């Protein structure tokens, strides 16, 4: 894929280098306010982190059109295309809510040397078997309230999606206090995209306001995390591209259509 646009080229470079990318002002103030108002109507539990999860239903996609509009939002689709190509699908979703004092989540990665099933001893080089897919899952984390240093939220070890060694136990124990771990600035309206091969986690929530984040997890068309599927929302009519994103896994282009017009093929 040839990228001619300078902004996209920078996105591609940073995403490849770091394993994550922050797109600030991806949502307007109006979009953020509308989504928060709909969540207020839901009366989210104050003592729980996750809400509106799917598969096993439509999750928060059934809570209103603004949640469905994020599926193929114009600010994220070009960046997703850089990592996943023309054919990808939505695999799962959930929201996260945290109040001041809630503790961090464990640093982890779902693929590669630090994945739970890699089985590589600490300090030994990990040789990925031929059948293992290391890349192919990308998360879009929408910040509906300010997050970042001094507040908490998403944290990660930049570049760790390319390592061949498990994260050292001393870093794991220190969490976001380890010098290798960063908490990117993500003001309300930001979209944080990251590879699930990246070592990442959730930092302690220190801000006086509640954390509100919506996570949309995408993958290559032929892949899936689990056998269940995100259902079509009953209360919202999806556009054509959103319906494609909810298709079952299948071979790209042969059985799974492109999400992009051919005239936008960017050098294919």
Fold and architecture overview:
By secondary structure, the protein is an alpha+beta fold. The chain has one domain (6-264): Jelly Rolls (Sandwich). The protein contains six helices and eight strands, in the order H-E-H-E-H-H-E-E-E-H-E-E-E-H. The strands form two sheets. It has a six-stranded antiparallel beta sheet. Helix 1 (6-18) packs across helix 4. The chain is globular, with a radius of gyration of 18 Å. The termini are close together. 39% of the residues are buried. Residues 263-268 have low confidence and may be disordered.
Structural class comes to alpha+beta
The global form is: globular
Question: At the third CATH level, what is the topology name?
Answer: Jelly Rolls
Q: What count of structural domains?
A: 1
CATH superfamily: q2cbj1_9rhob like domain
Distance between the termini: 6 Å
Q: What does the main sheet amount to? A: 6 strands, antiparallel
Q: What is the helix tally?
A: 6
Number of strands: 8
Into which percentage range does the β-strand content fall?
Answer: 15-25%
Outline the low-pLDDT stretches: 263-268
Write the H/E string, N to C.
HEHEHHEEEHEEEH
Mean pLDDT: 93
Which strand order do you get reading across the main beta sheet? Answer: 1-6-4-8-3-2
CATH architecture: Sandwich
Cα-atom radius of gyration: 18 Å
CATH class: Mainly Beta
Please bin the fraction of helical residues.
10-25%
